């Protein structure tokens, strides 16, 4: 009997289950939409909603009544919590800067599950887990492209500086 046992086992060990759910949530936050079996999606949905709610706690509206020291401690605590549970700096930054602001007025229900046709091989119920106010695929690709250009621009500037230093060193060596 499973009395008072609320953990969905998903036929996996605890470590495997934790890693799988963490990877699913990271993929959900990165792509804003994932496809899997409905049982896995239900578990990932509850975890993702708790993570988004934790990120919303860093917004200024939630920290109004605290003094500066308590506010800084709360922000640091929530940020560290997100880093320990997601372990991906890019996703945590997106969560704190983009998603928390996007869902600032929403009280809950940040995700939805859309059921699909059962998988043909084993008749498993399949579905799509997506963020409610999600960006389109083109917008996400544009953001990634801009990040790449920005990082390539800064890397390009660094390589140009290095090349100039090397040229100066060669001139000095030839002059001697």
Would you kindly provide a written description of the structure presented here, covering whatever features stand out?
This protein has 5 helices and 3 strands. With 176 residues, the protein is mostly helical. The protein has a 3-stranded antiparallel beta sheet with strand order 1-3-2. α1 (14-31) packs across α2 and α2 packs across α4.
Q: Would you identify the regions where 5 or more consecutive residues have pLDDT less than 50?
A: none
Beta-strand segment tally: 3
Q: What sort of overall outline do the alpha carbons produce when their principal axes are compared?
A: extended
Using the 3D structure, state the CATH architecture of the largest domain: Alpha-Beta Complex
Structural class: mainly alpha
In percent terms, what proportion of residues is strand?
5-15%
How many discrete structural domains? Answer: 2
CATH class wording of the largest domain = Alpha Beta
The helix content, as a percent range, equals 55-70%
CATH superfamily descriptor of the largest domain: Ribosomal protein L17
Explain briefly what this protein structure is.
The protein has about 180 residues and is mostly helical.
Topology, element by element:
Elements: H1 14-31, E1 33-37, H2 38-56, H3 68-86, H4 89-102, E2 111-115, E3 126-131, H5 137-175
Antiparallel strand pairs: 1-3, 2-3
Helix pairs in contact: 1-2, 2-4, 3-4
Biased composition (Basic and acidic residues): 139-163
Organism: Leptospira ognonensis
GO cellular component, one term: cytosolic large ribosomal subunit
